[in-house]
Amino acid sequence: MVEIRKPIQVAEAVRLVMEHVTKLGTEIVPLENAYGRVLAEPIIAKHDVPPFDRSPYDGFAIRALDSEGASGNNRLPFHVIGEIGAGHIGDRPIGEKEAYRIMTGAQIPENADAVVMFEQTVESGNGFTLRKPFEVGENISFKGEDCKKGEQLIEAGTLIHPGTIALLATFGYAYVEVAIKPVVGILSTGTELLDVADELEPGKIRNSNGPMIRAQLDRMGISYKSYGMAADELDTCAFVVEQALAETDFLITTGGVSVGDYDYLPAIYERLGAKVLFNKVAMRPGSVTTVAALDGKLLFGLSGNPSACFTGFELFTRPAIVGMMGGTNPYMPRMKATLGEDFKKPNPFTRFVRASWGFTEQGVVAVPAGFNKSSAVSSIARGNCIIVLPSGTRGFATSDEVDILLLGSELGVSEWTL
Ligand SMILES: Nc1nc2c(c(=O)[nH]1)N[C@H]1C(S)=C(S)[C@@H](COP(=O)(O)OP(=O)(O)OC[C@H]3O[C@@H](n4cnc5c(N)ncnc54)[C@H](O)[C@@H]3O)O[C@H]1N2
Ligand code: MOO
Ligand SMILES: [Mg+2]
């Protein structure tokens, strides 16, 4: 008798997965290898930024008080005592009616408290004149105006992106403490599967899930070990799953998780003694998505159907991997959008529709990306987001407001809110 599975809600499935995530610890890496990693330490300002008062313009550093009373009819003269390029400092304090030529980024000389842009002066010989008064502090970038020494600027658990790299470099973090990245095992199961380079044969199809998941991991900067394809035979699959589990931190299989005669993943989990967290989620596609845990490792049994496999990865696998690294923003960012065309199918389960979003006169509009069955491969190639249609609804019409989840964003959000 076929097992009747009890579906759980998507939010509950996300919660269960995240509850079973095990962190792998931290390591120190050189800054040049830190892009895409998750910070394991907060970034603390080791000094003020800027570290000294500096000029934001190319011009002249003056004492504001010497410009008092300047006007078009009363141009005030200044004597230039030297030049300060960025990286240099003035030799002496400026005195009354004196000025330094100063370049953008150069330290403000002693006694100067304002900067005049070249364009605001008329130069002649060793000096220039001004036609307006300047205030104390005008055109000065103050020490510490960007970051104050000791301030915590970025929290541990944040993904390091190019801007984060700039901040780390600013404070001299030549080495950074980051989370250890998991090595993920990938196995595609299915007797029908051919390799990408193979010619089609009767009854067979090419393996698209394996390459797709490799690319989903590449997009996250995560390394993997590919175990290729295994035919739907219990012993063969069990052997590879066991080997992969021993060699990796996390296993993704595709196919073989439903109730078919040759769907062997449930039997393999049982044989291994893995705890099945769930084997049915109230969603389409991907209702058969199964996740099990064994000795602190997660086994993701993604559906064989390409759209279901893709969606299962984005909804559950990706957050789990980010969570293993202590990442605090593991979920896809969400937006409101207007539905760009009718979607008439009723939704007994929450439906995740691959779609493309864009900005139009109506604001953000999301249009389903075409053939949207669980078995579809064409729409996953076209979409840039997933429309979320709640369960219990009878289809949606053009102009309805919907939630969309953004694909491909390296920066996620901290909460699953659907
Ligand atoms: N009696 C029932 N049958 C099915 C149910 C059910 O609840 N009761 N669920 C259906 C749903 S929903 C889905 S989704 C599929 C899931 O099946 P599996 O995850 O067990 O996957 P397979 O049976 O191995 O394959 C399904 C489908 O996907 C193709 N496939 C598999 N691997 C790949 C790959 N690497 N690249 C491309 N395509 C692949 C495979 O050929 C099948 O067409 O079960 C339903 N059945
Ligand atoms: O598990 Mo399936 O809901 O059609 O993708
Ligand atoms: Mg099956």
UniProtKB/TrEMBL annotation:
Keywords: Magnesium, Metal-binding, Molybdenum, Molybdenum cofactor biosynthesis, Transferase
Pfam families on file: MoCF_biosynth, MoeA_C, MoeA_N
Catalyses which reaction(s): adenylyl-molybdopterin + molybdate = Mo-molybdopterin + AMP + H(+)
Pathway: Cofactor biosynthesis; molybdopterin biosynthesis
Enzyme Commission number(s): 2.10.1.1
Cofactor(s), by name: Mg(2+)
SUPFAM superfamilies: MoeA C-terminal domain-like, MoeA N-terminal region -like, Molybdenum cofactor biosynthesis proteins
Key word Magnesium present: yes
Superkingdom of the organism of origin: Bacteria
Residues in MoaB/Mog domain copies: 185-323
Cited function: Catalyzes the insertion of molybdate into adenylated molybdopterin with the concomitant release of AMP.
Family recorded in the similarity comment: Belongs to the MoeA family.
UniProt name for this protein: Molybdopterin molybdenumtransferase
Organism per entry: Sporosarcina quadrami
